[in-house]
Amino acid sequence: MMMFAVLAGPASPGDLVAARTQMALSLGWHIILACLGVGMPALLLFAEWRGLRTGDPDYLRLARRWATAVGVLFAVGAVSGTILSFEMGLLWPGLMGVYGEVIGLPFALEGIAFFLEAIFLGVYLYAWDRLPPRVHLLSGVPVMVAGVASAVFVVSANAWMNQPRGFDLDHGRITRVAPWQAMFNPATAPQVVHMVIAAFMVSGFVTAGVYAAALLRGRRDRYHRLGFLVPFTLAAVLAPVQIVAGDYAARFLAGYQPTKLAAAEAVFPTGPNAPLHIGGLVIGDEIHYALEIPSGLSLLVGFNPGTVVQGLDRTAPADRPPVAPVHLAFDTMVGIGVLLLLLGAWLALSWWRRRDMPSSPWFLRLAAISGVLAVIAVEMGWIVTEVGRQPWIVYGRMRTFQAVNPAPGLWVSLAVVSAVYVVLTISTLYVLRHISRTGRVAPQEAPAT
Q1: Distance of alpha carbon 46 from alpha carbon 43, whole angstroms
Q2: Listed range (168-172, 218-222, 322-326, 339-343) with the worst mean pLDDT
Q3: Burial zone of 170 (CB within 10 Å; 0-12 exposed, 13-18 middle, 19+ buried)
């Protein structure tokens, strides 16, 4: 298959752009649903557990509302996930034809996790009043576990693309395939930890943002306060953990993908005392207008200002990713992470001093957009991961143009898929908004559990 791709020649630039654009659209859209699918089951199980333990009707109302939203998001995510599975073969036959047997294991395991999640989610949603309360609560645990497992398996496949392992290449043919070694490659741990934490943060901030907007509109009852505080607290507690995980991932890049780190930090010359660039514009082989912290990057990478950091000058121009978008995405991700960390610290300080939320309306205004900011941060992180690996689809092994489908007409596919996502977006928002409006009942009207 690799020989066919080489002999056929690369796809036209337009077709390659169409394939990459469609994949970016699909991944960028699906990752939001995937994050909510990982984190929201934990939120609703906590609410149900708390409600059963204390008899609090507000917690039980939250659990039922969030369960309905999870059901909708799972159904929509199944559609976008199916689109992605077809795109892997239709857009990138060069990749799957050559390396499919190497990275097939995590995709197979993800399929098993998906079916388990679907089965137990069905039980959880439709047996609420048919099972004993504690049994019903336990039936939701596999939903949460399977959601996290799905994320682990998919991210491990992406990690393999950054650190390909588990095979030998003998005269252009794949031999001695070791699927478990491929799945648990050096990039798996840093990517999985970073992504799973991000998923819980997105779920927490997005859910809290909905209730923060309601609080701003004057709905200050206990139900809405709990609806804000429970998910926001989860996300805020994870914010400093994510900073540590992000530092771990960045130092991993220094050892295994130094070109990606150099692009993210816009470092061109190799050497010690590498500065840390915050902001700035990349023009040619220089960065301008950046806030520069002397020796900052060397200190972060090796805890020593004398640590040598490899710059882009060690990478041939044809093997470099586009530096400007990677650096901008990296700075945006880190900047949002710091902002969300400070927002969580604001709540913690207020709670420590007054046992209450901050009284400033600016806190709720920022909290209301925290979910959007968290989603943007995740999208920027994937831009760093995927664009930062270019021009390789399999790092150091296969270039992206070798993997793309050489058939013409990929722009038509892009147009069709774009239309599908427009319909999905409008439909999903309409249904979620309808759920929000029809679920406004007084505490005494909440259905019994």
Answers
A1: 5
A2: 168-172
A3: exposed
